[in-house]
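Final report, Chapter 2: Outcomes

The project's central promise was a pipeline that accepts a single protein chain and returns its three-dimensional structure in a standardized token representation, suitable for archiving and comparison. That pipeline is now operational. To close this chapter, we reproduce one record exactly as it appears in the project archive, with the input sequence first and the structure output second.
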Amino acid sequence: MDNECPICLDVITPLSEKKLLVSKVCDHKICDVCAEQQLSSQLGHAQCAICRCHITRESFAPFDMSQIPYNILKDAHKRVLQVYNDTRANFKDTPEYDKFLEERETLINNLAAGKNDPRWDLADAELKNYERQNAGRITENIALQHDELRKRVKRVVETEQTFYEMVEKGAPFNLWKVEELVHTLQRTHASFFSEEKEVVSSVGECKPLNAAIRNDTDIPRRTLTSRDKVLECDISGGYDSKLVNHRCEIQVDLLLFWNLV
């Protein structure tokens, strides 16, 4: 528990005589009485009771007790949803699904009551029993949720492209390349996109998704039909020299402008 001292095992509340301290070194907590006993017996130097890192009197700060209810509820919510992860599709009708949701919320509230509450033991046993009996379905639901998340992330990236990254990058935009920008979700969920870039054969060799493309000459050239299209795609090679020169003049003018302002 977030408010339990690891040495005396007392649960510290805002009404307790003891005060809860948190280590600024390792973020572990201890009551002020045990901390004082440790530091006094070891001349102001001690080890954390959990991770054994070096601590002194200056390492401790009062713990904000207002965080405890939120953290306990958050941990209980996370634990229950990892097991009770069914969706509406797993039930034949809405009333049955509503009943499931009510049971899940009851479990969360009982776990959030804390280990000193008898409801916690009942909720813990019920949760473990449910996980044991429905292990297969829980695993399937996790896989489905992962696939749904992958689809949502790809949909967002496809819609937004790198618009917000371009805005954040800011001017002068002629000093960086648009193709080097990567959507934030592509960084945080890189595995969702790496599978599209290459197909791994049975012998572990990477091959193009399109088997017809064997070298650069097989890649079809993009045909641009207007000056605006050329300027939009930022490609000059292989097109009319006047358009290329005009594009270069624009780039030079912008470079001078942003360097002078």
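Archive annotation: The CA atoms of residues 176 and 224 lie 23 Å apart.
This record, like all others produced under the grant, will remain available to the consortium after the project formally closes.
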